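Case study B.
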Amino acid sequence: MRKLDYTTIFFALMGSFLVLFILIPIVNLMLSSDLNSIIANLKDSQVISSIFISVYSALAATLIAVLFGVPLAYILARHDFFGKGFVESIIDIPIVIPHTVSGIALLLVFTSGGILGAPLGKLGLVFTNAIPGIIIAMLFVSSSFVVNSAREGFESVDPRMEKVARTLGSGTMRTFFLISLPLALRSIVVGSILCWARAISEFGAIIILAYYPLAASTLIYTRFVQFGLSNSTPVAIILISICLTLFIIVRIIIKGWRSYDKT
Amino acid sequence: MIKLENISRDWKEFKINNVSLEINERDYFIFLGPSGSGKTMLLELIAGMWFPDSGKIFMDDIDVTMLPSEKREVGFVYQNYMLFPHKTVFENIAFGLNIRKVDKKEIQKQVEEMMSLFGITKLSNRLPRTLSGGEQQRTALARALIIHPKVLLMDEPLSALDRITREELIKEFKRIHKKFEVTIIHVTHNFDEALQLADRIAIIKEGTVSQVGDTDEVFRHPKDEFVADFVGTENIIRGIARVGEDNLTTVDTGNIEIKSSEIKTGSVHATIRPEDITLSNENVPTSARNVFKGFIREIYDLGTIIKLTIDIGEPLVLVLTRQSFLDLELNVGKEIFVYFKATAVNLF
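Model:
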């Protein structure tokens, strides 16, 4: 039997505070609504459509973040260049500023008269009070998760492995797709899950940029303000269930992947 | 043939300075130098992983200075093998052929040949992390050689291995060198490896070449103090070894017989470190198995220590403190007894 010393016991007690602090409200929330009202809400087309908008927009934001974030992550992992620190700080800015501030900053640029909103509007892309607005709000606040996680993934791939692949006749691009990407994929997927989860939970930037169409987080807020707690809780439960289910499924899938950790 | 002409490159923390070298076709060439001397960088420059700031690199008289790695046809083996961890042994070896879009059946055939050549056929479907160091090294060699490179570059290929595996692989390298008729450049800081494998050696010091030459030449006639220090002031004597009834190896150099506690037969090099040798003016009884009468041929005064060359039928270098030198009243031509233990004699 393992003997526990006082320090371990003390630290465990201190540490359990945060675990319980997170767990109790979530569990309580899950139990605080009866099944009938949840089922009734599942039949409510406004609820279903708002959840769909959230899931879909978060997915779109994540795909965009991966498409542009992975090349950036690779550059940051492999090269030292003038202004690298500056680029790194820019990527982390959305984490440190309030999300409503992000929303205002985005609105100023993407409104129909804004420096990006105006030209894109001519191409038929409208952001204010439209799904593209929700997507860019989500992208803005969550893309750094993909970049940072993918970068860690690429950094764990020894550059000499790429060099060997090159000597065997593989060009730089092919080496990236055959060696670096597969080995960093796990980190990229983990970053994408975080990105997607962060995107789906976004509220502050969304209500400023695109209050309508209602995303799930906005709907919960609207219901709470208009009809009170009992009306917003079932929607919250549905959203959290979907998120947790997807989260668990993806985690199980990547757990089954071969791991190539260095010995 | 590989020719480096005044190659320089500055990596801020590191520098290759005006290196010129010629490596002949089918040479087993060794870059020998202490860690941090720039030998790996030099190897990576030859492989095209970096481009020099100035100077030129030729392979078979073609200027490849600015040619990227993938077009140079070089094989590269790193100290930690750098096998692709997500690919099996088979897939690792097949990598170069797959890139070249070789026919599937042909790949199968060539990879199987390679695996049987290196005795790793059974490992075909294993992932690198499940292999021992020696197995990984063989896989890395097979992967590099299957594309029939113009030159095989190896960066400290034996440093991460235990002694027994190292001995095995040294034989393997000799075999490969013969069988594939390939030029090999091997980087090491271990002078035993150099002595056993190299046709020619370049001593690398702080990003420059301090001496190039045939192995014997470099070891016997170190050009400057750095080379002498680095290759060791060791005594290296060639001879034929046989194992006697006393379970000791006797090395016959043609002039004298040296006893060693290491068991080896055939043609060997015996090395004796100078500090393991003791001197006496008289033939005193001793447990040392090697006792020789010789005469002092040369005396070098190095300040606090004195270096002597003593002729015992073979020249033997040893060092003394100034005090013992004075106590023994030594001078050139004086007869003296030399002692060293059988355990002080290393064979390879």
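Residues 26-255 of chain A form a domain with the MetI-like fold fold (CATH 1.10.3720.10). The remaining cases will be described in the next quarterly update.
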